[in-house]
Design goal:
The complex is a heterodimer of chains A (302) and B (441). Chain A is globular and about 70 Å long. Chain A is built from 15 helices and no strands. Chain A is 73% helix and 0% strand. Chain A is an all-alpha fold. Chain B has two domains: 194 residues, Periplasmic binding protein-like II (D-Maltodextrin-Binding Protein, domain 2, 3-Layer(aba) Sandwich), CATH 3.40.190.10; 205 residues, D-Maltodextrin-Binding Protein, domain 2, CATH 3.40.190. Helices cover 40% and strands 12% of the residues of chain B. Chain B is built from 17 helices and 13 strands. Chain B has a five-stranded mixed β-sheet, with helices on both faces. In chain B, helix 1 packs parallel to helix 3, helix 2 packs antiparallel against helix 14 and helix 16 runs antiparallel to helix 17. Classes of the chains: A mainly alpha (302), B alpha/beta (441).
């Protein structure tokens, strides 16, 4: 939001008749905002920069020279080593993560939009209470649920299967919250009324009209859920005991922990593996950015 | 891998939260075990761990033991969720029979009732292991598993640079170490003999050496010994070096530490056997051949005793239906020469079994350490490691608090003695909070 202000301020100033009298204050606040923004950009990007730079270094190059600058270029050979390590299990881990995050986020988006839409558009006894429970669930940190989930899944023999990670990933209280807010604000009752008069069933109305109107919120929900599943560690670490089911997060930590052992995975391979697993997220963000922005602000309106 | 898999992490907390935590291990072999098959026919047992190389040892066993098949499953490293998983699985009643557990975590597992007493099956194997390693898997007279590896400590030092500063023989005692520290620092104020790091388990090794255990269990209750007189001897010795600025203040395993070593500003490291390859790869090729390994400096040259920093066991988890077969496998894995050779080569362990110490895989000269057979130094120390050391049931908290306080000692805002008093009171509070009775202090 601050970026918008900075961008729009000069234009406003140039058209303003009191141009001469105001620049002092607006200049100083601009610099302040710019300073704060610069600090936060550095704060957030420095680790990413370090990761990118480090992924181009050889194992010995990592420990000599400046950590934030290049020291030889070995990115391609590093990537080859990542995919060759332990018979190429890294590709399997990436694929697993993609299944967990992609399928989990898609299904949770669908369920969240159904639930949120129903809560917004079909008032029923206790819908308020139900929504408040969902709101409360937003506040419960996911890792706290990992152990109870294990104890629930264990007697029904779901532990150590794809389902053990997928099923909990299909639920997103925050998604339900966002979908409800967005549906209430953006899907006009008049449209639903018109659809009903034209003989469209509720299900058809939902999929053909409401879902389309809600699409910015859906992208937001999808992205949020995708990122949180992608970076989830404790749940898969707890549920899975089979290397070929693991997502990339658990796999990389396993590699990293071998540091110092007889045939440890070299540090440059671990770092490059970590850098590589960020790439799909960046691609996803860049390609869905337009929707993402409109979705973000929609939640904050109400 | 850092052969100690720092503490039980969230595991202990998780156990406490979900009511696993009992005051002492009741050792009830529950009937809700996971392992299948009657004891008479072929038995299949599951083994959870994360170290590379274990799987190959399991494969070797399975080939030669058709009646007892081991099913290896790689789980997250202990401190990264693996221990939590094991404790949760015990609670859920589907834990595997066997698990890789660090020595420092075994008492917290025992306190949580997650281990199975296998004393009757294991006791015949006792003589095959260094005495102190057996004590690590035995708590209050009950044996819960078989030791796998050990991590004796030694002095890794840059022989070439020591000679440059006129030190031809590495310090054999702590008094000599202190004198050499002063000599080096006097010759060049930018150069230090070593560093006072922030590694809690490394400090534990120093107390271990001086027979100053942090935990003891007289009368079946925990007693804390951070501020014992032996512990105070260690504390005042290191406080002296820190106060005289004879040690660098680099943090343990930090890039700046290795940079200073590579630049010839830090000349030695008192650390465990697993640090030898770690240091070599971190300091880098420029000093290859310059380094050497000497025994850890001792307090009393006429009765040398050494410390340990790491090591782990194959534990038998509560609920195992075939504890005898599980113990049989665990013993085999730690003692069979084929298995031990594999664990030395692939996992990088230093064996706890006496027979393992003469394994040919340990007799290769190490080029980084001037073609010295470095394991010979550790081998000679093994029988003289203090046997009395016992880890407590709250090592996650202890190592965190001690690590933080060590950092304060480095910066001078805390003394070593003050640090130990602080950790002792925090540990007592944590034990009380977990409903574990604690006495003395």
């Amino acid at each position: 939001m601050s970026t918008l202000q900075i961008g729009s301020r000069p234009r406003a100033a140039s058209t303003s008749p009191t141009r001469r009298s105001t620049p002092r204050r607006s200049d100083s606040s601009r610099w302040l905002i710019l300073g704060v923004m610069t600090i936060s950009v550095v704060y957030f990007l420095a680790p990413v920069w370090w990761l990118l730079v480090s992924s181009t270094k050889s194992d010995s190059g990592l420990f000599s020279g400046n950590g934030f600058w290049f020291n030889g270029f070995h990115l391609w050979s590093n990537i080859r080593s990542v995919f060759a390590q332990d018979n190429g299990i890294y590709a399997r881990w990436l694929l697993n993560t993609l299944v967990y995050a992609g399928l989990g986020a898609a299904l949770s988006t669908l369920f969240a939009s159904l639930a949120g839409y129903a809560l917004a558009k079909f008032p029923f006894r206790g819908s308020g209470a139900l929504f408040n429970i969902v709101l409360a669930a937003v506040l419960v940190p996911q890792p706290l649920l990992a152990i109870p989930l294990y104890l629930l899944f264990s007697p029904v023999h779901l532990v150590n299967t794809y389902w053990a990670v997928l099923i909990p990933s299909m639920v997103s209280p925050f998604g339900v919250y966002l979908a409800r807010i967005y549906a209430a604000a953006s899907v006009p009752d008049e449209v639903l009324e018109a659809a009903r008069l034209d003989g469209s069933g509720e299900v058809r109305t939902f999929f053909q009209i409401s879902l389309r109107v809600m699409s910015p919120a859906l992208v937001t929900i999808f992205l949020f859920q995708f990122v949180s599943i992608w970076s989830n560690y404790l749940l898969p670490a707890l549920m899975l005991a089979n290397e070929s089911l693991q997502p990339v997060t658990v796999g990389i930590v396993g590699w990293q922990q071998q540091h110092g052992s007889g045939n440890a995975v070299p540090t440059n391979v671990v770092i490059t593996a970590a850098a590589l697993c960020v790439v799909p997220l960046v691609i996803l963000f860049l390609s869905l950015q337009r929707f993402w922005r409109s979705g973000m602000t929609s939640g904050s309106v109400k | 891998m850092r052969k100690r898999w720092i503490a039980a992490a969230a595991g202990v907390a998780a156990a406490a939260t979900f009511g696993l935590s009992g005051c002492s291990s009741s050792g009830t072999s529950g009937t809700s075990g996971s392992t299948q098959g009657p004891a008479s026919g072929p038995v299949s047992l599951t083994f959870w761990g994360w170290a590379p190389g274990y799987q190959q040892s399991v494969a070797l066993w399975n080939k030669s033991h058709p009646d007892i098949q081991i099913d290896w499953e790689t789980v997250a490293p202990g401190s990264k969720g693996g221990y939590t998983k094991m404790l949760t699985a015990v609670k859920a009643g589907n834990a595997p029979c066997l698990a890789q557990v660090g020595y420092e975590t075994l008492p917290s597992f025992a306190a949580a009732g997650a281990l199975q007493d296998v004393t009757q099956y294991a006791s015949p194997d006792q003589g095959q292991f260094a005495a102190w390693t057996w004590n690590q898997v035995t708590i209050e007279g009950k044996t819960y598993g078989i030791p796998v590896d050990a991590a004796p400590m030694a002095l890794l030092y840059n022989k070439t640079l020591f000679a440059k500063y006129g030190i031809t023989a590495p310090p054999a005692t702590w008094a000599e170490y202190s004198a050499d520290a002063a000599k080096i620092h006097q010759a060049d104020p930018k150069v230090y003999i070593g560093y006072f790091g922030n590694d809690a388990y490394n400090y534990a090794g120093l107390d271990w050496q001086d027979n100053a255990p942090w935990f003891t269990t007289p009368n079946s209750s925990w007693r804390l010994g951070f501020t014992s007189s032996a512990g105070e001897q260690v504390a005042s010795y290191w406080q002296g070096l820190v106060s005289r600025h004879l040690l660098s203040t680099d943090q343990s395993y930090s890039p700046s530490l290795y940079k200073d070593m590579a630049a010839g500003r830090i000349l030695s490291d008192v650390n465990a056997v697993w640090d030898a390859p770690l240091l070599a790869s971190s300091v880098g090729k420029s000093q290859s051949g310059q380094w050497a390994v000497a025994p850890m400096p001792v307090w009393n040259a006429s009765a040398p005793a050494y410390g340990n920093d790491g090591g782990s066991a194959t534990a038998v988890l509560n609920g195992c239906k075939d504890p005898q077969q599980a113990t049989e496998f665990a013993d085999w894995m730690s003692t069979d020469s084929g298995s031990v050779t594999n664990l030395i080569d692939v996992t990088g362990i230093y064996p706890a079994a006496t027979s393992g110490l003469s394994n040919p895989a340990l007799s290769a000269p190490n080029a980084y350490y001037g073609n010295q057979v470095v394991y010979d130094v550790f081998k000679a120390e093994m029988p003289q490691i203090n046997t009395s050391w016992l880890w407590g049931p709250t090592m996650t908290q202890v190592s965190t608090d001690l690590g933080n306080d060590l950092g304060s000692v480095e910066t001078g805002s805390q003394t070593v003695a003050g640090m130990l008093g602080d950790v002792q009171s925090k540990t007592a509070a944590q034990l009380t909070q977990q409903g574990i009775s604690v006495s003395g202090g």
